[in-house]
Amino acid sequence: MSEESAAERTVLEERTLTPMRKTIARRLGESYREAVHVTVNRTVDAEPLRAATDAAAADETGSTPSVTDVILCALSETLASHPSFNATYEDETHRLYDEQNVGIAVSIDDGLVTPVLSDLASKSLIEVTTARRRLTERVQSGDYTMGLFRNGTFTLSNLGPLGVDSFDPIINPPEVAILGLGRMTGRAVESEGAVEVRQHLTLSLSIDHRILDGADAARFLETLANNVETAEKYG
């Protein structure tokens, strides 16, 4: 029996990484080499989120809050209750911060970047809406400096609009946690003897297990779930 010849491989294209992509590759490699990732998932009733979003008023530009904006308000209240998550870990030191500087993952041509929404806790829902949309527009248009990505204390990544149900988000070093959002999906729920379809959302929280434990993550998600399911208070 004759030996089969080796498979041929023809280069279609070679791509040199852009400086931005090199930075992303370096930081994510650093995150996976150093941080001990553990992801905890929890599915919550998203109907209150939808109701709060629908009821919210528009800002001065006419923009109305999105589900992400309402979740940011719920996240802010949660971080206030669990300050060890609003933190970094460097030089064997766990540093907790007064300000909630939350990175918002935004997709651009060069990859995924996380401009920082500063001092989230000081902002109302309308202010969050305006600030987040300005951040997104700036990075997507290329009108930004690297200072826009510095001094984050926590990160939010939303892949729901891309049809993802859940995922394991990668921590943005030196932060110690990141929250991932999946898409909303309908689930049949029994209530008072009747069955209705309600929208649900999966929250995926990745933590650095060197600093935080699974039980800490579970308690964080419990608080976040309660805030999400009472989202009308942010309107």
Describe, in plain words, how this protein is organized in 3D.
By secondary structure, this protein is α+β, with helices and mostly antiparallel strands. It is built from five helices and ten strands. α2 crosses α3. The mean pLDDT is 92.
CATH architecture label: 2-Layer Sandwich
- CATH topology name: Chloramphenicol Acetyltransferase
- Ends distance: 75 Å
- Whole-number total of structural domains: 1
Count of helix runs: 5
Query: Would you list the SSEs in sequence order as H and E?
Result: HEHHEEEEEEHEEEH
- As a percent range, the share of helical residues equals 25-40%
Average per-residue pLDDT, rounded, comes to 92
Oligomeric state of this protein:
single chain
Q: What strand line-up does the widest sheet have?
A: 1-10-9-8-4-7
Radius of gyration: 20 Å
**Helix/sheet category:** alpha+beta
Overall 3D form: globular
Task: List the main descriptive attributes of the protein structure presented here.
alpha+beta, Chloramphenicol Acetyltransferase, six-stranded mixed beta sheet, two-stranded antiparallel ribbon, 10 strands
